[in-house]
Structure formats: C-alpha cells, structure tokens
Amino acid sequence: MVSFDLTGKKAIVTGSTRGLGRGMAEGLMEAGAEVVIMGTSTKALEVATEYTEKGFLCHGVAADLGNRESLIGGFNEAMEKLGGTLDVFVNAAGIQRRHFSEEFPMEDWDAVIDVNLNAVFMLCQLAGKEMIKNGYGKIINVASMLSFFGGFTVPAYAASKGAVAQLTKALSNEWTSKGINVNAIAPGYMATEMNTALINDEGRSKEILGRIPAKRWGNREDMKGITIFLASQASDYLSGAVIPVDGGYLGK
C-alpha cells in the first residue's frame, strides 16, 4: 500500500523561516517528519521553538548560504541535530534582485547566483553523499515559473532557476539508480514577500491573475501536498521532474 506517512523520517529545509519554505517544512512535520529549519539568521531558532511548542519534532540552524564555510557548517550542524541520518532534503532558500538588464549590478548577479544556484548544488552534493551511504533519499529543489520563461528585470533569478531545473535532471540521472529521487517544484505566482513588487503593481497583478485559471495567487499552504508527495514513498518512481504548482498558469 502506497504511503504518504513520513513518521520517523528526518528532513532539512533551507529558507524555511518564512514564505514557501516554511509551508513546505510545516507540511513535512504535519506528515510526521522531524525537520531542521535552516535560515540565515537566529529567526530559524525562534521558528523551530514555535513548532516544538506545538508538539512537532523540529530544530533550528542559522547559516549564511551565500558563504560556503557557513553553508557547510550549517549542514553539519543540522546533521548532528538529526542524529546523523537524512531522508529528505529541501532546497527552498532563494533571493531576488530586480534591475533592468542593462543596469544590473554584478554584485547583485553574484549574490543571486551564489544563493539560488551555487548553494543549491553544494547542498545537493552534501545531502547526496549522506543519502548514497543509505541507498535512499529524497531531494526536492525549488525551481520557478522562470525555469520555463524569462521574466522581466530579473535576469539573474531567471538564469538561476533555469539552471536549478537542469541541475535537478542531471542529479537525477546519476543518483536515481542509487535510490535517491531528485525532483523540483516550480511554484507559480505566490503571495510572498519576494513578489510584493508584483502584487503592488496593479497592472501586472491584473495581468497575472487574468492568466491563472484558479483566479488567485498561490500561498504556502499550496506547497504542502506536493512536498509531502515528493518526500514520501508515493513518489518512489518519480525522478528528474520539474512540477508546476501554479493554479494552471502554464496550461493557459
């Protein structure tokens, strides 16, 4: 019998102090997993405390994913908190910078690529090494609608998310035979802090909503079901996929 139950599974979710990452981490906990909340500040510890007070198995780790030394230290700390076992790894951390392409500062380009792509690969590599030892694991990356099209004034973000989609396929090719499923979720237009500028732009917001068959922006609750599915036994024969969660946006 196919199971979506994650009781006893151990997971790390980056970028999970707020937004979509928090929804994904919460979904895993609700399905029974023990989760490490990994964020860039001590807020990760505060969020973890909120969940432990609600009865969930949760830990917090603060790490700067734009700094390789901090990233490795944060991963190692998370592994310690999980007792050295890792079943599920979710790369939900991401940053955004908006400028016209002809004016895009290279320091902003580097910052976006470091967090949205370089850190994603490094963390997949670290998680993959642990999972290969056990012959089992689920890696879930967060792609984007901009994995499919180019966006506007966000060249670095578009480049990074296009790369995440391709990286997911490349890792799947190598690791699925080792028992590790590597997939990506591509969120549609979500009502998060990252999209505040779009939501507040009356013209663009109307244009976006006009194309979404669901007739609303998504939210972090919409990320729970797909995350639980990809983290569970139910997805054991699914790998290398980039799955849109977009209210039907891409189909219109």
Poorly predicted residue ranges: none
What is the percent of helical residues?
40-55%
Number of helices: 8
For the biggest sheet, the summary is: 7 strands, parallel
User: What is the arithmetic mean of pLDDT?
Assistant: 96
H/E order of the elements? Answer: EHEHEHEHEHEHHHE
Determine the N-to-C terminus distance. 35 Å
Widest β-sheet, arrangement of strands: 3-2-1-4-5-6-7
Proportion of β residues?
15-25%
The Rg value, from CA coordinates, equals 17 Å
Written description of the protein model:
This protein is of the alpha/beta class. Helix content is 44%, strand content 15%. The chain has helices at residues 19-30, 43-53, 68-81, 106-134, 155-175, 196-200, 202-211, 224-231, and strands spanning 10-14, 34-39, 58-62, 88-91, 137-142, 180-187, 242-245. A seven-stranded parallel sheet has the order 3-2-1-4-5-6-7, with helices on both faces. Strand 1, helix 1 (19-30) and strand 2 (34-39) form a beta-alpha-beta unit. It is globular, with a radius of gyration of 17 Å. The chain starts with 9 loop residues before the first strand and ends in a 7-residue tail after the last strand. The mean pLDDT is 96.
Q: Main traits of this protein?
A:
alpha/beta, seven-stranded parallel sheet, 7 strands
SSE map:
Layout: E1 10-14, H1 19-30, E2 34-39, H2 43-53, E3 58-62, H3 68-81, E4 88-91, H4 106-134, E5 137-142, H5 155-175, E6 180-187, H6 196-200, H7 202-211, H8 224-231, E7 242-245
Parallel strand pairs: 1-2, 1-4, 2-3, 4-5, 5-6, 6-7
Helix pairs in contact: 1-8, 3-4, 4-5
